[in-house]
Specification:
By secondary structure, this protein is of the alpha+beta class. The protein is built from eight helices and twelve strands. The protein binds dinuclear copper ion.
């Protein structure tokens, strides 16, 4: 699902330094490969016509040609050297240093993304970052192999359990950049979407300060009942809410759930009606998801929604 005003950018319209460098390497490699394809196809076609059997007699056979042997050893070697140089240049422009701490950590889960900042800020399924700045991301997996890919920003990279990787991400301009898991990782691989929300430095700082605040106390009756349900049902064993429940990390942190743009890793726009539908029967909407259907009554659902909507 794309949110209103969002477009799916292609990797060929790179909107970051890294995406342009990687796109350029792709184009250069494509041009070199196309030239080789044209040369080989042309030579094959030429030989098929030129050396075809005429009048039932085979053409004259020749054996050995030192000049040709040297040429077809040296030319491919030079092509490989050229590709190596182009690749090394791109790696130099896009690979982060190894001795620098990450600006944020993304952990892939079946089937959602956890995003944590050294400040303690935490969110899910959306990365907030300042536009026009290079951000160093550490990517991990909590279970199986996933793949992080935001096409407009690059870079596409696997999340392998037990083997954290690092990459730069940046965005030229503020905006929402749509991405998805790009490695088949189980039943709900298709609904493992992620967004990069690139903001001005001031907006990003303000966002991060808000994330550090614990959940505000609730006043009105439905929200109070919702909070009690949250604590009494099994929600609390998987979802953390700062100031309410301990720091469990099984499911997404819900401290600021209400201000996220989507639910269930991009499956639904985050509206009260969609939240109610999700709580009522997550397995109907996202079969196989680790969020169980709790067989809540309509009243319980609306109380929980009333509480979750206070989590701004
Ligand atoms: Cu995670 Cu596909």
């Amino acid at each position: 699902m794309l949110l209103p005003g969002e477009t799916m950018a292609t990797p060929f319209a790179g909107q970051s330094t890294e995406a342009r460098a990687i796109g350029q390497l792709f184009t250069e490699t494509l041009v070199i490969s196309a030239a080789i394809l044209a040369l080989v196809t042309g030579l094959v076609a030429y030989c098929v016509v030129k050396f075809r059997a005429r009048d039932g007699a085979e053409p004259a056979q020749t054996h050995g040609h030192t000049g040709l042997e040297i040429a077809w050893t040296i030319v491919p070697f030079l092509i490989v050297v050229a590709l190596f140089v182009l690749t090394a240049r791109t790696m130099g422009a896009t690979d982060p240093p190894v001795d620098r701490a990450a600006d944020l950590t993304v952990t892939a889960h079946q089937w959602w993304w956890e995003v944590r900042y050294p400040s303690g800020a935490v969110t899910a399924n959306e990365i907030h970052m300042p536009a026009g700045e290079r951000v160093l991301v550490e990517l991990q997996s909590a279970d199986v192999v996933h793949d992080f890919w935001v096409p407009a920003l690059a870079r596409k990279i696997d999340a392998t359990p037990g083997r954290p990787v690092h990459f730069w991400i940046s965005a030229d301009r503020a905006g929402n950049y749509f991405g998805a898991c790009a490695e088949f990782c189980g039943a709900q691989h298709a609904w493992m979407r992620i967004r990069v929300v690139a903001q001005t430095r001031a907006d990003f700082d303000a966002w991060q300060r808000r994330q550090l605040l614990p959940a505000a106390p609730v006043g009105d009756a439905p929200a109070v009942r919702g909070l009690r349900l949250f604590n009494e049902l099994t929600c609390v064993r998987c979802h953390a809410i700062a100031g309410v429940t301990p720091d469990v990390r099984v499911g997404p942190d819900l401290t600021h759930l209400a201000e996220r743009s989507t639910l269930a890793a991009g499956l639904l726009e985050n509206t009260p009606a969609n939240l109610a539908a999700w709580l009522a029967d997550p397995q109907a909407l996202k079969p196989g998801s680790h969020m169980p259907s709790l067989r809540l009554t309509g009243g319980q659902v609306s109380d929980l929604v009333a509480y979750f909507e206070t989590l701004k």
